[in-house]
Amino acid sequence: MHLPLMWLTHIGVVVLIAGILLCLWRMVKGPHLADRVLAGDTMAMLVAGLVIVLAVKYSSGLFFDAALVVAILGFVSTVAFAQYIGAKKKFADIPAPGSDPGDAGTGEGGAA
Amino acid sequence: MSWQLFFDTLAVFLLIVGLFFMLVGAVGVFRLPDAYHRLHAASKCSTLGMMGLAAAACLHVGTPDVIAKSVALVLFIFVSTPVGSHMLAKAAHRDRAPQWGGTLSDELAEDKAGGENKTACDTTVSKSKKKSKTRAA
Q1: How many CB atoms lie within 10 A of CB A77?
Q2: Residue A112 in domain
Q3: d(Cα B22, Cα A49) in Å, to the nearest integer?
């Protein structure tokens, strides 16, 4: 195998894992829920990149299905969480079914 | 010089470019001040980085199934990343995610505040033009 390419795949694994750790720190610390979702989306992209770098390292085409699946799951989870964040306030105004309108904030509906 | 050596050298260059953009995106997600800045860094850099990495894998492995799958992957990412980050930015704005202190203007909030009684398109355009003029001055 081409020698600089082999070393570059080793460096690339280290770089992408460092990026995953940075995104993990943002996901733990992020002040808003959108920050956490965005860190998860970037982390899915980095994992797909890591799978592609491993495909280059082992000269195999079997890794690409995994990269495609990780990218699709990252997109779908981002869209689902974006819908949730956008509609959170609307859900909070609706009282939970079965509870009195007076104590909507103190019932079990407040946890959702 | 054989073709494989040429393709591998080109793959080294593309891999360096892709890894650079991926690392810049991750550092941007880590360092930038608010959610909108972080979205800006993450979406652009991960799109470009995945393009570089997939092109490098195409050149190095080079079998038809790898080329087809990486073209499909890059096309999917080019479509899905802007859509996802746009939806996330709109949802964060609707949920009133905190903005950076140095943010100059929030035109979506202005449109939402003035959108009930002023429905004509001209007022919005003239207002934003005036705003950009004052910003440039």
Answers
A1: 15
A2: no
A3: 8
Q: Which two tokens stand for residue B31?
A: 């360092």
SS3 of A3, please? helix
* Amino acid symbol at B102: G
Domain count, chain A: 1
**Partner B, chain A 43-102, Cβ-Cβ below 8 Å:** 45-46, 48-49, 52-53, 55-56, 59-61, 64-65, 67-68, 71-72, 75, 78-79, 81-86, 88-89
State yes or no: ipTM above 0.85.
no
pLDDT digits (tens, 9 = 90+) for A78-101: 999 999 998 877 767 777 676 655
Q: Is residue A111 part of a domain?
A: no
Q: What is the DSSP code (8-state) at residue B100? A: P
Residue A19 burial (CB count, 10 A):
29
B28, A38 contact by CB (below 8 A): no
Range of the domain at A74: 3-90
- Asked if residues B109 and B99 have their Cβ atoms less than 8 Å apart, the reply is no
Q: pTM score > 0.95 for this model?
A: no
Dist CA A18 CA A103 (whole Å): 48
CB contact at 8 A, A16 and B19: yes
Which chain A residues are closer than 8 Å to B26 by Cβ?
18-20, 22-23, 42, 46
**Residue A108 within a domain:** no
